[in-house]
Specification:
alpha/beta, binds thiamine diphosphate, binds magnesium ion
C-alpha cells in the first residue's frame, strides 16, 4: 500500500486506506495549524469509519433529514476526526434557510484552514457554523449530556408522531467520549438519567486510552467504569482493540440488539496510534506531532511521507459506496414512507415542518393569560406557571421539566393530555430530570437541537450548576429556555446558600442570552410571548417565590412594553422628571411605592421597568433616550441582587440599591429591612442623589 495513486485497493485494504486518510488529514491539519490534538483522531479513526460506513443511518446529501442518526463527538478536542469524516463522506452544506447546497460542508480548503479565523473548522466543533456538526462540544461532558437529550427527543418524537405502519422516527444517537467526559460530573448525571429512562437508542463509545492531558489516566481516574455503568442500568460491552473493525462491528450489532437500556462500548485504544513513540506515558498528546514525527507516522501507515492533505484515489468513492449509498437508500425509503404519512396525517406533517423551522402554530398565544390588577398580587413563579401552561397548550412541542423542584418552580404542565415522560412511556410533556441540574441543561439543549421547544427549571441559585450548558445554548444560538424561581434574598428563611446574589449580573454578561426578570404577572405573560418567538437565542426566566403586586394597567403603562426590554411604567413628571427610579422583578412594587412617596413630596419621579436588559440594548437610540433621557442624571436602581452592572444605567451621578454581600437566613420582612429594601430606604437614597446635584 506504499503507492496510493495508481493501485486500486479493495476490501480490508480499502478500509485501512480510508482510515489512514482520516488519520493523516487530522495530522496534517493539526500540523498546519500548529495547534490541536492529533492523537485521538489517529486512534479513533477506525471506530468512526466503521460506524459511519456500516451503521450510521445518515445521508450526506441531506444532513438535516429528520430521522437521521445523530453522531456526537463529545471529546471535541478530537475535532479533526469529525471534520475529516464530514469531508470524506461528502456531507453537503445547508444554508441558513435549511436549503441543501451543492457544495460540501467542508471542502479540503476548510481542513487546511483548521483553527483559522473565519474557517468552518474551529478548534472545537461548533454546530451553528458547520453542517454535519450536530452539537457544539469541547467542554468535556457536554456532548454526552446533549446526546441524552437527543435520545429523549427521539423517544418523544416516536411516541407522538409514529402511527401504525408509519414508523417515521426510529433513529439512534451515538456519542464518542473520552476519559474526561466520564470523569466530569455531568457525564455521570447524564448516564444515570439515560440508564433510568432505559434509552436503548443511545450508544456511547468510550475511548479507553488510559491517558489524559496531565499523564496516565490512573493518576486521577481508576474506578471500574464498566461496573459503574452496569450500576446505572446500561448494557456494557468491550472492544479490546480499537483497530479491530470486526470486533467494533460486533459491538455495534450488540447495541442494535439491546432493548430497554443504553449501551456503552468500552474501546481500548492507544492515543496517537501509529506514532513510533510510546504515547501512553507522554504528556504532549494535545500538541502537533512536529514535522519529523509526521513523516515517521506516515511511513508507519505506508503513506507517502511528503504528501499533505492527501485523499488517495478510491477513498471518496469508498465513502460514497458506504455511508453515502446506505444512507441515501435509507433516506429515500423513508421519504416515500413520509410522503404517504403526510397525506394521511397532514396535521402532524405540518407540525413537524413548523418544528424544523422553529416556527409557531397559528393561534399559539391564544391561551396566554391576562392578569387582573391585584395590590397583593401573586408570585411571578405562579403567574409564570399559568402563562407556561397557556403557551404549552398552543405549542404542542413545548415540553420540559424541573430538576426535582417542579412544584416549587410551578413548571408542571397540568392541562388534559399533558402527561408524563417516563421510562417506557415517552409521549408525555412533563419531564423529570431528577436532581441533576447540569445534565438537565445539556439534555434541554439536546432536545432543542432535535426540534423540540424544551425548558428546564430549578432554583435560580442553582443556575450555577448548569451554567456551562446555558453558555453552550447561547453559543450554539439555540432557543433553549431555563426557568429559575426563588430569585433573590426574597427566598427568606432558606438563607444565603439558596439566595442568589451575583447570578443575575453574571448571566447578563453572557453574550446572546436573554435574561428576563419580570416585574409583575402581566410582564410574565409578555416575557413568555417574546421567549416563544426566539429562534436563535436561549432565554432565562428569573422569577420570585414571594407574591408581588399586579399593576393596574389602566393607571400604568401596558405590559407590552416588556418586548422592548425596558419601558416607562409610570411618569409623574411628563418628559422632564426630576429623578428616574428603575428596577426589575419583585422590586418594581417598591419602586412604585417609593415614587408615590416622592411625588407626594413634590418630586417628579419616573419609574422604569427593565425586565430584559439585552432587549433594551437592541432598541434604537431614540427609544432608549425616550426611556432614559440623558439629561436626567438623578437615577436610582433597585434590585435585590448584586449591584454590578447597574452603573451602566444609573450613570456616574446615580446610585444603586442592591446587594453587596451574601444574604442571610431570616423571615423576608426582616431581610428587607436589614438589607435596605424598604420604601423609606429607597426614598432616602433618592433624596441623596437629588441633593448631590
Ligand atoms: C470541562 C473541560 N475541562 C478541561 C478541558 C481541557 N481538556 C481538553 S482534553 C482534556 C483531557 C484529555 O483527556 P481525555 O479526556 O482522556 O482525552 P484524550 O486526551 O485521551 O483524547 C482536557 C482536560 C476541557 N476541554 N473541558
Ligand atoms: Mg484519554
Amino acid at each position: 500500500m506504499a503507492t496510493t495513486e495508481q493501485v486500486v485497493v479493495t476490501g480490508k485494504q480499502l478500509d485501512l486506506l480510508s482510515i489512514n486518510t482520516i488519520r493523516t488529514l487530522a495530522i496534517d491539519a493539526v500540523q498546519q495549524a500548529n495547534s490541536g490534538h492529533p492523537g485521538a483522531p489517529m486512534a479513533l479513526a477506525p471506530v468512526v469509519y466503521k460506524l459511519w460506513q456500516d451503521f450510521l443511518r445518515y445521508d450526506p446529501s441531506d444532513p438535516l433529514w429528520l430521522n437521521r442518526d445523530r453522531f456526537v463527538l463529545s471529546n471535541g478536542h478530537a475535532s479533526m476526526l469529525l471534520y475529516a469524516t464530514l469531508h470524506l463522506a461528502e456531507v453537503r452544506r445547508v444554508d441558513a434557510n435549511g436549503k441543501v447546497l451543492s457544495e460540501l460542508s467542508l471542502p479540503l480548503e476548510e481542513l487546511k484552514r483548521f483553527r483559522q479565523l473565519g474557517s468552518l473548522t474551529p478548534g472545537h466543533p461548533e454546530s451553528h457554523l458547520t453542517t454535519g456538526v450536530e452539537t457544539t462540544t469541547g467542554p468535556l461532558g457536554q456532548g454526552v449530556g446533549n446526546s441524552v437529550g437527543m435520545a429523549m427527543a427521539a423517544k418523544w418524537l416516536a411516541a407522538n408522531f409514529n402511527r401504525p405502519q408509519f414508523e417515521v422516527f426510529d433513529y439512534n444517537v451515538y456519542s464518542i467520549c473520552s476519559d474526561g467526559d466520564l470523569m466530569e460530573g455531568i457525564g455521570g448525571e447524564a448516564a444515570s438519567l439515560a440508564g433510568h429512562l432505559g434509552l436503548d437508542n443511545l450508544c456511547w463509545i468510550y475511548d479507553n486510552n488510559h491517558i489524559t492531558l496531565d499523564g496516565p489516566a490512573n493518576w486521577s481516574f481508576s474506578e471500574d467504569v464498566a461496573t459503574r455503568f452496569i450500576g446505572y442500568g446500561w448494557n456494557v460491552t468491550r472492544v479490546g482493540d480499537a483497530n479491530d473493525l470486526e470486533m467494533i462491528g460486533r459491538a455495534l450489532d450488540t447495541f442494535h440488539k439491546t432493548t430497554d437500556r443504553p449501551t456503552l462500548i468500552i474501546l481500548d485504544s492507544h492515543i496517537g496510534y501509529g506514532s513510533p513513540h510510546k504515547q501512553d506515558s507522554s504528556a504532549s498528546h494535545g500538541e502537533p506531532l512536529g514535522e519529523e514525527e509526521v513523516r515517521l507516522v506516515k511511513r508507519n501507515y505506508g503513506w507517502p511521507e511528503d504528501a499533505k492533505f492527501l485523499v488517495p484515489e478510491g477513498v471518496l468513492e469508498n465513502f460514497r459506496g458506504g455511508v453515502g449509498k446506505r444512507g441515501g437508500e435509507a433516506r429515500t425509503e423513508w421519504a416515500a414512507l413520509y410522503a404517504n404519512y403526510a397525506k394521511q396525517f397532514p396535521d402532524l406533517a405540518v407540525r413537524l415542518d413548523l418544528m424544523q423551522r422553529r416556527d409557531l402554530p397559528a393561534e399559539w398565544d391564544k391561551n396566554l393569560p391576562v392578569f387582573p390588577p391585584d395590590p397583593k398580587g401573586i408570585a411571578t413563579r405562579e403567574s409564570s406557571g399559568k402563562a407556561l401552561n397557556g403557551l404549552a397548550q398552543g405549542v404542542p412541542w413545548l415540553v420540559g421539566g424541573s430538576a426535582d423542584l417542579a412544584t416549587s418552580n410551578k413548571t408542571t404542565l397540568k392541562f388534559d393530555g399533558a402527561g408524563e415522560f417516563q421510562t417506557g412511556s415517552f409521549a408525555g410533556r412533563n419531564f423529570h430530570f431528577g436532581v441533576r441540574e447540569h445534565a438537565m441543561g445539556a439534555s434541554v439543549n439536546g432536545m432543542v437541537l432535535s426540534g423540540l421547544r424544551a425548558f428546564g427549571a430549578t432554583f435560580f441559585n442553582f443556575s450555577d450548576y448548569m451554567r456551562a450548558s446555558i453558555r453552550l445554548a447561547a453559543l450554539m444560538e439555540i432557543p433553549s429556555v431555563f426557568v429559575f424561581t426563588h430569585d433573590s434574598i426574597g427566598v427568606g428563611e432558606d438563607g444565603p446558600t439558596h439566595q442568589p446574589i451575583e447570578q443575575l449580573a453574571s448571566l447578563r454578561a453572557m453574550p446572546n442570552l436573554l435574561v428576563f426578570r419580570p416585574g409583575d404577572a402581566n410582564e410574565v405573560t409578555e416575557c413568555w410571548r417574546v421567549i416563544a418567538q426566539q429562534k436563535h437565542a436561549p432565554s432565562l426566566m428569573v422569577l420570585s417565590r414571594q407574591a408581588m403586586p399586579t399593576f393596574d394597567r389602566s393607571r400604568f403603562a401596558p405590559a407590552s412594553g416588556t418586548a422592548k426590554g425596558a419601558y416607562v411604567l409610570s411618569d409623574a413628571g411628563g418628559d422632564k422628571p426630576d429623578l428616574i427610579l428603575m428596577g426589575t422583578g419583585s422590586e418594581m412594587g417598591l419602586c412604585v411605592e417609593s415614587a408615590e412617596k416622592l411625588t407626594a413630596a413634590g418630586i417628579k419621579v419616573r419609574v422604569v421597568s427593565m425586565p430584559c436588559w439585552e432587549l433594551f440594548e437592541q432598541q434604537d437610540a431614540a427609544y432608549k433616550e425616550s426611556v432614559l433621557p440623558a439629561a436626567v442624571t438623578a437615577r436610582v436602581s433597585v434590585e435585590m441582587a448584586s449591584v454590578f452592572g447597574w452603573d451602566r444605567y444609573v450613570g456616574p451621578r446615580g446610585r444603586s440599591v442592591g446587594m453587596r454581600s451574601f444574604g442571610a437566613s431570616a423571615p423576608l420582612k426582616d431581610l428587607l429591612k436589614h438589607f435596605g429594601f424598604t420604601a423609606d430606604a429607597v426614598v432616602a437614597e433618592c433624596r441623596q442623589v437629588l441633593a448631590q446635584k
